[in-house]
Amino acid sequence: MGRVNTAAIRRMKKEGRKVVCTTAYDAAFAALADGAGVDLILVGDSMGNAVLGFESTIPVTVEMMAHHCAAVVRARPSALVVADVPFAVAGGSFERLLDACAVFMQQSGVDAVKIEGGEDMAPKIAALCAAGIPVMGHIGLLPQRVLQLGGYRRFGKSEVERVQLIADAKAVEAAGAFCIVGEMICHDTAEAISAALNVPLIGIGSGLGCDGQIIVSTDILGLTPGGGPPFAKVYADLGSAASKAFGDYAADVREGRFPVTTPKQ
Ligand code: KIV
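The joint structure predicted for all components is written out below.
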């Protein structure tokens, strides 16, 4: 099978196939996700919380993103690789946004970019698509606006929010996005958004009515200190396994059982 492209992601909705997406921030985990048959790898700015030790995605810069995107691309995945456009870049001048996307595509080698925002961001998404840059949208909870929101919450419960979210999704699709992430959206509203779109709605905390799912990889691998969000299922507790391995190693070093030597050495 060849590399997944944006046309293949769009087609999956028509064919009734769920789009499987996750995040990766380095070559090792990108290779593991890709080997398991994931369709799309997002180098999310969630790496701020997930692996860089920040408290939110806000401190993540274009330079940090470019470095981690290049590592993921070096795994040579068959999955489509998408770079998250970090905080304050899409909201600034179009030239700065275009420059950041050019860095991700030309220097890091990703296939597409993701931008948080709905109707407000549609003109810039259209201009990027016109410049040949494939764009994944992101509506609902926008983690880059968490300080403005005053915390994380679910979206699309009230009629006003439901109507706005459908308008956001349609505007981002009309601008040319090949799929749209819908984060923390009430499940019935997410279903309505999916029904209103031709491109896949990729849910995160938005229920089964979406056309695919994305999850932060560290949340399903037991690597999020204190546990991930309630909707994330832990498929493997790598955190406990790694902690035990480090403990066993430390004990072996202290008690002279490591390194293991053979008579020849
Ligand atoms: O940064 C990220 O990982 C994301 C996902 C939560 C969709 O935006």
